[in-house]
Amino acid sequence: xxxTKFGHACVRVEHxxxxxxxxxxxxxxPEAVDGADxxxxxxxxxDHWTPEQLRRADAPVRTIGxxxxxIAAQAPDLAERVERxxxxxxxxxxxxxxxxxxxxxxxxxxxxxxxxxxxYLLDVGGTTLFHxxxxxxxxxxxxxxxxxxxxxxxxxxxxAIDFALAVGAARTLAIHDKVxxxxxxxxxxxxxxxxxxxxxxxxxRLPDGSDL
Length: 212
Hints:
By secondary structure, the protein is an alpha/beta fold. It contains four helices and 14 strands. The protein has helices at 51-54, 65-74, 157-167, 182-196, and strands at residues 2-5, 11-15, 18-22, 38-41, 61-63, 82-84, 90-93, 96-101, 119-124, 127-131, 145-149, 171-175, 202-204, 210-211. The strands form two sheets. The protein has a seven-stranded mixed sheet, covered by helices on one side. It has a seven-stranded mixed sheet with strand order 7-8-9-10-11-12-13, with helices on one face. Helix 3 (157-167) packs parallel to helix 4 (182-196).
């Protein structure tokens, strides 16, 4: 497996000739999507998808109904490539198994309508990785690699720490990291390492375009 961290919440997973891209949004370098075999989108916010990003490849897009409706409205030329999924669905992307997990975005403010959000649990040659989108709901089972949001308007560092501890993955890779400055991200890194590393949980935050 080769996993490449791209801007913000986007990762690219390559395994045995299949490329899965998750959440290529407004903060993501365009090349993240090039040559993708399938694109997964967790929720409707523009930092997780844009029409321009989805047009970079001819790949099918699998996503929840709220996003599918937004794509149909904003980019009807893409509608034929969109396949709707729901929590509990599972499917294969070549040799990579995918399960759709959870249903709601984290609360930004109680007066906002709650956005739908489904994460994706991937089985990549026996290694499991979990991308939660914008949520702090775990996958409900052990995983090897957690892709953990570390900066967001809806997130406190204590919540990020508790989420990573609760999931308990052997490795935690920081995502959703374009909201803070580099100085602030360094502070978040320090807090997460303080809690995770004594428990034997590795924490990493990679530069954009770097491989895990």
